[in-house]
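Why does residue order matter? Because the sequence determines the fold. Keep that principle in mind as you read this record.
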Amino acid sequence: MQHRLLPLTFMAATLASLVCWQIKGNADEITPPPDSNKPATAPTATRGGANCSSGENSLTAIAPNGGLVTTSADYPALLFYIPETTAKEAEFVIIDGEGNFIYNAKLTLPRKPGIMRLNLPPETASPITETGNPYQWELALICDESDRSGDDLVVGELQRVPVSLEIQNKLQQANSADRFSLYQEAGLEYEAIAALDELRRENPQDERLQSAWEQWLKERGLEDLVGMPAIGD
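Structure:
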């Protein structure tokens, strides 16, 4: 880890189970997470512009609430659009309010652009436990390993929020489809959309899932990412 990442204080289950979803509205439709009037993407910053990326869409954090990702999970998943890039690797970090690294890893980038899901593995990441004070995160595409000042990067915040004991107990027993509904019930929009992303990856032929995903993108000004494939693991 190079010292450039330290001063971050500047950065503000199965297909059969789907028929059992208890989602408000028409039983034949999937309701995406509730709307938000705030911008969809996180605040972004690049050093020297898009130094190793091309295409109409830049590196993007897919998140509601002006880039502040709220979570109830100890090890949350984050979603990013990875553009066409010559970078082979990316670096992702999360630090807490005291400057301690929660997660710090280099990632091998997929060869094609699309929506990447970044899961924090419990065996290498510290749990997100503190509530109230946001954690800071940064994803950087490594354009030149010998000169990291030219990285293409996106930055934002991650905040742990409490949920009721009832919801916690339900989540512990829920499958992927049930978690989608439970997150909606708890008002956790980001985790609901992350659950929806997980479901569409598990069931790529399910048109209802894809339609709900695309509707969410459109409602948050991310219509340019409609049709972008899910990439990575």
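Helices lie at 165-173, 176-186, 189-202, 207-219.
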